[in-house]
Specification:
heterodimer; A: 317 residues; mainly beta; Immunoglobulin-like; 3 domains; eight-stranded mixed beta sheet; six-stranded antiparallel beta sheet; B: 536 residues; 4 domains; 13 helices
Chain lengths: 317, 536
């Protein structure tokens, strides 16, 4: 008996501690999946002189910060630094051409045990070239461009309201209402709101979700895994820009295969679009209304650039 | 007297306007013919002259006192005022009357009698007013110059002639006629647009008697300024019209001069050209001085300046200078200020135009930033309603930048970015060589276009008179270009290949360059007169 009591106590403690962990999980999740930017690209002004003379070496420091919740691996990213061929060259790190650096970066997303932004500082050594004859000053532009694959993950508590017309004698626990998701999900494309609708289908209801998406960062959304095209001179395909693909939608044991989504790929024209996903299989009306977390996942690639200008001056003019 | 008064009262504007016109004529004759500049104030310092004046004036005043006695005049105050006026006129005559002075006195008396004979109630004030005006006209300028040491280019009788200014003002006060306001406006415009330029030249350095060459030069400048003033709106309209046509037809390509921020401009230019003396007499050696400033950035390749000085006489014959310092050929490395002197030793009596000419070989370069993009990328962006310039802010409407100097180079091509597809692109590039200083581009020594590495200039077209191989092409027919007074434009096409000429980035930046080596000549002109030798 004593042994039984002890077991019950241990079990209770375990359950309680599990509850506690769950609360912490939600708080951490909230912190991780917040924000409207993915990668932040910054040319550190203080690292650059305002002007340089001809044939002068100088440093440029670039900071890449992953402010989002999704990791960017070297294979999923491209960084290109370009200068004006005739007036400047990149000494270190060496690229295939003296005025173009092409590389990648590897940055973790925010995680449970790492909720600070991962960043990478890249240092470039550049050198100005000679000015044209009789020229005394020339302004050069240095351009940094990144292209990276990214994912937006969104969680929202939605209500599966099986009593749309309130005909059941018992009070329902929730009703289908629009869910606003302010503050983003730690990615440059954010799910801004979800409008659940319960479509009647005989003795069942088919939950339908209108999911609104928006490009919340300053760059451009591109087709997932098309970074090599967009960050190069290659000809892009017709749908390479603005495409956001819904890769997962889940709730209460239903997954992506159970839904029919229209369109399958969102086109963020004017930086906004929406997708309507309907559960193909109905939920019996006899099921009581309930709240459940809806999980959404979108894949896309993103590009943004940053530029800085500096003057090359002739010495002793 | 009564009739004159009635006529005057009927229409007072006309007689005053007439006197004003006479005062203008006198002013013009002062400058051009008589060189009247009042009485030299230093003359009063000579004691002997004072005695002569006082002795001679005693008799004159006695006679005047008799004829203008209070019997004929209204009161003693008037009599005293008249006597003072007579004294002043006598004094002027004693010091030495000449035709210029006589004209001024005649004009003063004309003014006096017109107002005295008409409606003037306070005749005493009028007499004193005329007294003051004559004093100011004959000795006032000299006294002010002597005391205040005024710059004659700022204050002198040439700049502020007392009679025209006073009569127009007095006429308005007396008649309240708005036409005098119009005269004042005319005078103000004249001051602003003409005097500032022209008359300062006339007056500069001539606080006493103006030499004829300076007068001629000054009047020439005055005339040019007047012409400019009249023609300015027409020219401005015409220029704008021509520019719009040129822009529409695409025959003029613009650019911006490089903003170096340095005070000394690149190139060669004259400053402060002047003669060593104000007047020359036969037998005098004539020297013309000028500061020549030159700056180049090409220290390995100095500017060679060829100097020539000639005097052109009235028959158009050219007489070369006997000596040019520091020499007819000068090499300038980097930046220098040189003092140039041209000496003419045996110029005969007459008028001469001295031409100081500097011809130098100079170089101006220009660059045009261009952006290239895959046409498919642009199409994809367009389909998505995305703005290329927002997506790629590095792309800008680029304007050619040319280096400092006497020549401007404009360069233009099609709208940026230049879109290239698999079949390539053949956009045009237009170049304008424009003379932006007051000299002349005598001839072009070399004219080249450098296209970005890999691209080619389409030299097959007849309109593109260049030859060479990528990246540098030179103009084939420089003699055909000849001298350029204003501007000359050139147009070619260039060939871009998508696969070979663009970098592996969405937007490729490349520069087109133009280099022009040219002979530029600057001329400074001065007029002088060699007068017959003065008898002592």
């Amino acid at each position: 008996m004593k042994m039984k009591n002890t077991s019950v106590l241990i079990m209770l403690l375990f359950i309680l501690s599990a509850c506690q962990t769950g609360v912490n999980d939600n708080a951490t999740k909230e912190k991780i999946y917040t924000g409207e930017t993915g990668l932040e690209l910054e040319i550190l002004d203080r690292s650059l002189p305002e002007s340089v003379f001809e044939d002068e070496r100088f440093d440029m420091v670039l900071k890449l910060t992953n402010k989002g919740a999704y990791p960017i691996t070297a294979g999923d990213s491209i960084l290109k630094i370009t200068t004006e061929k005739d007036y400047m060259e990149i000494i270190e790190p060496k690229g295939s051409l003296p005025y173009i650096y092409s590389g990648s970066f590897d940055l973790d997303g925010k995680e449970k045990f790492q909720n600070t932004d991962d960043f990478e500082v890249k240092e470039f050594k550049l050198m100005s070239k000679r000015l044209d004859e009789q020229s005394q000053i020339h302004t050069v532009t240095i351009l940094a461009t990144v292209c990276y694959n990214y994912v937006t993950k969104a969680y929202a508590d939605i209500c599966i309201d099986t009593d749309v017309y309130n005909t059941k004698p018992i009070e329902k626990s929730c009703s289908a209402e629009q869910v606003s998701l302010n503050g983003g999900q730690g990615a440059p494309v954010a799910v801004t709101r979800i409008e659940p609708k319960m479509l009647s289908d005989g003795d069942s209801v088919k939950p339908q979700f209108v999911i609104y998406l928006r490009n919340t960062d300053r760059g451009s959304v591109i087709e997932y895994e098309r970074i090599n095209t967009i960050c190069s001179k290659e000809s892009p395909d017709r749908d390479d820009y603005n495409n956001v693909q819904l890769t997962d939608i889940r709730f209460s044991g239903y997954d992506r295969n159970d839904f029919r989504c229209e369109p399958d790929i969102a086109k963020l024209e004017n930086e906004e679009d929406y997708i309507i996903c309907t559960l193909q299989q109905g939920i019996p009306r006899s099921t009581p209304s309930y709240k459940t977390p809806l999980y959404l996942e979108f894949s896309y690639a993103y590009t943004l650039s940053e530029q800085v200008q500096l003057d090359i001056e002739r010495m002793f003019s | 007297m009564g009739k004159i008064k009635d006529k005057f009262n009927e229409n007072p504007f006309l007689p005053i306007f007439f006197i004003w016109l006479i005062s203008l004529l006198v002013w013009y004759l002062d400058i051009t013919v008589f060189r009247f500049n009042g009485i030299n104030f230093n003359i009063f310092v000579i004691a002997g002259l004072w005695i002569k004046i006082i002795r001679g004036m005693g008799i004159v005043l006695a006679v005047a006192g008799f004829f203008f006695s209070p019997v004929f005049l209204r009161n003693k105050k008037e009599w005293v005022a008249i006597l003072c006026l007579v004294w002043l006129i006598t004094l002027i005559c004693c010091v030495g009357i000449n035709f210029g002075a006589l004209l001024h006195l005649i004009m003063a008396l004309l003014f006096f009698f017109v107002f005295y004979a008409t409606e003037e109630k306070d005749k005493v004030s009028l007499i004193w007013l005329v007294f003051i005006l004559i004093s100011l006209d004959f000795v006032g300028y000299g006294i002010l110059e002597a005391i205040l040491n005024l710059d004659p280019s700022v204050f002198s009788r040439v700049i502020f002639p007392v009679w025209p200014i006073f009569i127009s003002w007095y006429g308005y006060i007396k008649t309240q006629d708005s036409r005098f306001t119009f005269i004042w406006i005319l005078m103000a415009i004249f001051y602003v647009f003409v005097f500032v330029d022209g008359q300062l030249v006339v007056a500069k350095g001539n606080n006493s008697y103006l030499d004829s060459a300076t007068i001629r030069a000054g009047l020439g400048t005055l005339w040019t300024a007047v012409q400019n003033m009249i023609m300015f709106p027409f020219n401005a309209f015409n220029a704008a019209f021509q520019q719009s046509i040129l822009n529409a037809t695409g025959d003029y390509y613009s650019g911006n001069q490089e903003q170096s921020g340095y005070s000394t401009q690149l190139g060669v230019y004259f400053e402060d050209t002047e003669t060593d003396m104000e007047r020359y007499f036969t037998g005098d050696s004539v020297s013309v001085w000028s500061k020549l400033r030159a700056k180049t950035l090409e220290t390995d390749d100095p500017i060679n300046i060829e100097l020539t000085c000639v005097a052109i006489d009235e028959a158009g014959e050219k007489i070369s200078a006997d000596r040019i310092e520091p020499g007819p050929n000068i090499d300038i490395y980097s930046e220098e200020d040189l003092f140039i002197t041209c000496d003419f030793s045996n110029l005969e009596e007459g008028f001469y135009e001295i031409q100081m000419k500097a011809e130098f070989l100079f170089e101006t370069t220009a660059r045009l930033k261009t952006f290239f993009m895959n046409k498919e990328t642009a199409r994809a962006l367009k389909r998505e309603d995305k703005d290329i310039y927002q997506e790629y802010p590095v792309i800008e409407d680029s304007v050619a930048i040319y280096t400092e100097g006497p020549v401007a180079i404009g360069m233009e091509t099609i709208k940026q970015p230049i879109l290239v597809d698999e079949s390539g692109a053949r956009p045009y590039i237009g170049i304008t060589i424009e003379n932006q200083w007051e000299g002349v581009i005598s001839r072009i020594d070399d004219f080249s276009i450098t296209v970005p590495q890999g691209m080619e200039l389409d030299t097959e077209l007849d309109s593109c008179d260049f030859s060479g191989s990528s990246p540098e092409y030179h103009h084939n027919n420089l003699d055909e270009i000849g001298a350029i007074d204003f501007y000359r434009s050139f147009k070619c096409r260039f060939i871009v290949d998508l696969n070979n000429d663009l970098d592996d980035i969405p937007v490729t930046t490349r520069y087109f360059r133009t280099k022009v080596n040219y002979y530029y000549s600057l001329t400074e002109v001065l007029d002088i007169e060699i007068e017959p030798e003065e008898e002592i």
